[in-house]
Amino acid sequence: QVQLVESGGGSVQAGGSLRLSCAASGYTYAHSCMAWFRQAPGKEREGVAAIDSDGDTLYTDSVKGRFTISRDNPKNFLYLQMNNLKPEDSAMYYCAAGLWLGVCWFGADWSYWGQGTQVTVSS
Asked: Were both Cys, which of 1, 5, 112, 116 would link to 97 (CB 3.0–4.6 Å)?
């Protein structure tokens, strides 16, 4: 049974930092694309960052230079280091897994999703 469990969300002031974690189980983690998505109230879900099995990364423009996605394959963990947070980063953040090798892209048919962790940034 595939499980993705996010943690690390919380409330911070603008300019602060948070580190999100996603614990994955139930599939061959190393052979997958992994990504972080977010959804704010009244807005569509958007891709934030993705990382493929080779460690190549993809970021949406609004977080480039502030967020860093990484993965620990032996431990089956995905991370998102978020620095210089802005109020517009406030959203529910979701971990997603794509069970394929090769390039990751946000518009793919992601196989599994976590339940989400809330990030709130105050000005």
From this structure: 112
Q: Which helix (H) or strand (E) holds 4?
A: strand 3-7
**Contact assessment for residue 92 and residue 59, using Cβ atoms and an 8 Å cutoff:** no
Q: Would you say residue 21 has pLDDT above 90? A: yes
Q: Which two tokens stand for residue 28?
A: 């061959």
Residue environment code for 11-49, b if the CB has 16+ CB neighbours within 10 A, otherwise e: ebeeeeebebbbbbeebebeebbbbbbbeeeeeeeebbb
pLDDT digit string (tens) for 30-67? 889 999 999 999 999 999 999 999 999 999 999 999 99
Q: Which two tokens stand for residue 109?
A: 């048919």
- Of 63, 99, 66, 74, nearest to 23 by C-alpha is 74
Residue 87, helix vs strand vs coil: helix
